[in-house]
Amino acid sequence: MVAREACPACGSTQYKKNGHSRHGKQNSQCRACARQFVAMANDRHITDAQRTPVEQWLCERISLRGICRAVGVSLTWLLHFMGQRFAACPADLPVRVPRRPPDVVLHRLEAEADELWSFVQKKANKQWVWIAMDAATRQIIAFHVGDRRRESAKALWATMPLVYREQATCSTDQYDAYTGVMPAERHKAITKKARKTNHVERFNNTLRHRVSRLVRETPSFSKQLAHHIGAIKYFICAYNLMKVTTAAFPV
Question: Which residue of 55, 174, 203, 249 has the smallest Cβ count within 10 Å?
Answer without folding.
Answer: 174
